[in-house]
Amino acid sequence: MKLDSKIPEGHISQKWTDYKDHLKLVAPNNRPKIDIIVVGTGLAGASAAASLAEMGYNVKAFCFQDSPRRAHSIAAQGGINAAKNYQNDGDSIYRLFYDTIKGGDYRAREANVHRLAEVSGNIIDQCVAQGVPFARDYGGMLDNRSFGGTQVQRTFYAAGQTGQQLLLGAYSSLSRQIGLGRIQMFNRHEMLDIVKVDGKARGIIARNLITGELERHSAHAVIIASGGYGNVYFLSTNAMGSNVTAAWKIHKKGAYFANPCFVQIHPTCIPVHGENQSKLTLMSESLRNSGRIWVPKKIEDAQAIRAGKMKATDIKEEDRDYFLERRYPAFGNLVPRDVASRAAKERCDAGFGIENNATNEGVYLDFSSEIINKGKQTAYAQGNHHPTDEEVMKLGKAWIEEKYGNLFQMYQKITDENPYELPMKIYPAVHYTMGGVWVDYNLQSSIPGCFVAGEANFSDHGANRLGASALMQGLADGYFVLPYTVSDYLANEIRTGTISTTSAEFDEAENNVRSQIDKFLNNNGSKSVDHFHKLLGHIMWNKVGMGRNEQGLIEAIREIAELKEEFYRDVYVPGTSNELNTELEKALRVADFIDLGQLMARDALQRKESAGGHFREEYQDSEGETLRDDENFAFVGAWEYQGNDINAEVLHKEVLEYEYIKIAARNYK
């Protein structure tokens, strides 16, 4: 099958508008005749389900959580980007488009990214209308702050809980449609397979996680909005339930999986502190607006800190290395995430890390300068032009608390250290996945009728996602793209009638799911699912993590294949299938992670360049920055499933052509 991205003709500023004007429509009286399944109810899924239901379609929405309010979108704390130029600092749709392409190291599809920038302003208007309590300035206008990879303030925020507030807005829209009977909500259900009839997506097999019952659900179109696959590393900033199963199941049925090696490492995570840790905690990138990142200049000071003989406050200002400000003066602490992460790793690898853990991995995120600056400004604004040091500190801490209070509280509860008095300790960790199911301009996968939205698709971020763009993409896909493109597809389905669930295709899909479940429950192995998940995570982090090289990737492919054999031979899953069985849930998910992990290593091995979060150690310039190969690797790598042997997957290439942006080396200096 040839990849057809279906990018429309015309100038990039008019592509989406002109394209929408010529899409096919479904008349309002015909929409109730059509069923749509939405898998996942985070920002992308909830907004898509609510929008399509409001248009009049019959929607079935599925989530494995006990409520859509528990979707992982809730954890995106820092903000959401939009090109409204409220700060009058030179922002525009084009600049947001440019920053996103550049931030992704020129590995994103140009047309999709421009559309994202175009609809960004509409998202803010939609959310304000829903009652999302965005922060406002003294005049009542919506406030903005900066995020990495930009030189403007375009990030809208609600204190340190933006994702939560946006999800509640989408959830309110979802709930309204549930109340009107247009959405059937299936909480505590997990999709375990997609059903194709005559080549088209026609339904899913879902497991009721409470009773264990396998259910058949049919539809004229299926939307996958199930999030990313960061938990392939075991330790990540993702919720522990986040998984790749829905995306991987459609991959096994013919949906290409694109750029799986493109994974984002976030620079501001609380460092690993023990072997028994089950997840990592992210400190919002918004903190880099006010915090300065540093390590000691002298290696003996770093050693003393790790030994507990010195504290951060004992290091004099002239003995601190603000390494991001030193290396990237134009952007400083607000360089993109992949750049900041590698810089922190370089300092720690050189022996300057400050955290006393197994690998000495940790740097400081220090707010003392901001506390003093804001304290002085606040005092001056209050008419106190000669405040004491104590007054400055008190006012500065109050300003920080108002801006970031819940984040500081969370950090203190986890680490038992007061970030108002001592710098936060941070280190990069796996966060977001830019790879995902390949989709065309319509967000349709290579399976007709199967659409993919939000983090589950690959389309908008290239090799690195700019901060505050995840929420933007999820809501853009759900509110402002899918209602048009799904309707265009469904215009040919108004005469199809109800899709039967008694067909041979549904029988086969359900039997395959049941067979896999029975195999796990009857395996009688000796090791837990978590045992294998942790082993996979170690391989992935050490050999397919922040730094990658040919030898390590070859070893990872072999080691994961061996792990897969051992997993199926020796995993033990207690309980039965007809009950709540969390170990069974995990086994099914880890089976998919193992296959995906091997494909990620294969994808990283074939991509002989460094781009964004994909850092091949053999391909870097003299200053340790990414060294792209635009002649040979300016493409989307879309993999086609070929059976149980992941090494047999076939790579298809979608060439990336830039008409409106000039490809150049990224420079944040």
TrEMBL record:
Gene Ontology CC, one term: plasma membrane
First-level EC class: oxidoreductase
Entry keyword set: Cell membrane, Electron transport, FAD, Flavoprotein, Membrane, Oxidoreductase, Transport
Reaction catalysed by this enzyme: a quinone + succinate = fumarate + a quinol
Annotated ranges, domain Fumarate reductase/succinate dehydrogenase flavoprotein-like C-terminal: 533-668
Cited Gene3D superfamilies: FAD/NAD(P)-binding domain (3.50.50.60), Fumarate reductase/succinate dehydrogenase flavoprotein-like, C-terminal domain (1.20.58.100), Succinate dehydrogenase/fumarate reductase flavoprotein, catalytic domain (3.90.700.10)
Domain FAD-dependent oxidoreductase 2 FAD-binding, chain residue ranges per copy: 35-471
Chain segments annotated as transmembrane: none
Localization in the cell: Cell membrane
Highest taxon above the source species: Bacteria
Membrane topology: Peripheral membrane protein
MF terms (GO), sorted A to Z: electron transfer activity; flavin adenine dinucleotide binding; succinate dehydrogenase (quinone) activity
Any single biological process term in GO: anaerobic respiration
Cofactor names: FAD
Pfam families named in the record: FAD_binding_2, Succ_DH_flav_C
InterPro entries, per the entry: FAD-dep_OxRdtase_2_FAD-bd, FAD/NAD-bd_sf, Fum_R/Succ_DH_flav-like_C_sf, Fum_Rdtase/Succ_DH_flav-like_C, SdhA/FrdA/AprA, Succ_DH/Fum_Rdt_flav_su, Succ_DH/fumarate_Rdtase_cat_sf
EC number assigned by the record: 1.3.5.1
Residues annotated as catalytic: 337 (proton acceptor)
Family: Belongs to the FAD-dependent oxidoreductase 2 family. FRD/SDH subfamily.
Name of this protein: succinate dehydrogenase
Gene, per the UniProt record: sdhA
